[in-house]
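Tutorial handout. Part one gives the primary structure; part two gives the three-dimensional structure as tokens.
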Amino acid sequence: MEDSEAPLAAIATHSDGRLLQSHGLTSKVYVPILRLIFERNYRPGDTEVDFTLDDVRNAADELGIVVRNAADVIYRMRSRTVLPAEILALGFYVLRQAGRGKYRFEQATSTVIDLPNTRPIEALDLTPNPVRRLLPENLTELDEQAILMIAGYCKLWDHFTGMTVYRLRSHVRKSVPGIGQAELDELNVAIAVRDDEVPTIVPIEAKAVADPVNRVQIATQVAFALEYFPGHEIRPLSIKVDHEGLLNLVEFNATTVASEIELVRSARYRLMMSDRQRSLIHVTNQVDL
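Part two.
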């Protein structure tokens, strides 16, 4: 393997110029709701715009839009969907939870974290054959949990961080004061030399091919780690499968302010499968995991 330290220069694209990750989808249901809320709460010169879950319900009722779960409007718009153009034009790229039933638009340079275009590092696919044969050959077809599993088997976290990384928990959901519920795809601990040293906390956000890396989610996982593991060093990471099937690993600075999230280092990994793995996949019925 090569050293994972790489320049964070250009945004990763295909040879034809297409971005390697989606920057979100549009929504005919949620966009009108947020647009109305923003229009009613924004005042010229504001850098933050607060609103509540009741504002979401009231806007939906006024627009005649049926919303079964008002909180889902915020979840999808902050992590999977592009905010309305009128809001982006005023520099409000961040939408985050600010407490139980409370939300906030914040000014920032962007919501999506662009993937740096670094030279791929070739790594052996060390996923055990009984597991690999039941997964799609193309990594673009994997969901978040499968991505995390393969990264663990292939020791990508160890190579990327230079530490020994152990899984602590998967799919963590817990309340964080001032934010509300935080969700982490995986929570790991890492040590550099000895097993008896104080572990580093490594929260990880995983993204399948259709979902972009989102700065709000990174800031939230840092807040979680600070709340439940005070006094420990925190190294927030994300892993993202791009449209070429490469695994993009990115480390960020440990801040709870979404607009201040910055890339610290990045690497792209191309997993090299063995002939045995390919033959097993081809003769095994695929299982939807």
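Part three, for discussion. The chain has a mean pLDDT of 86. The domain at 121-283 is CATH 3.40.1350.10 (Trna Endonuclease; Chain: A, domain 1).
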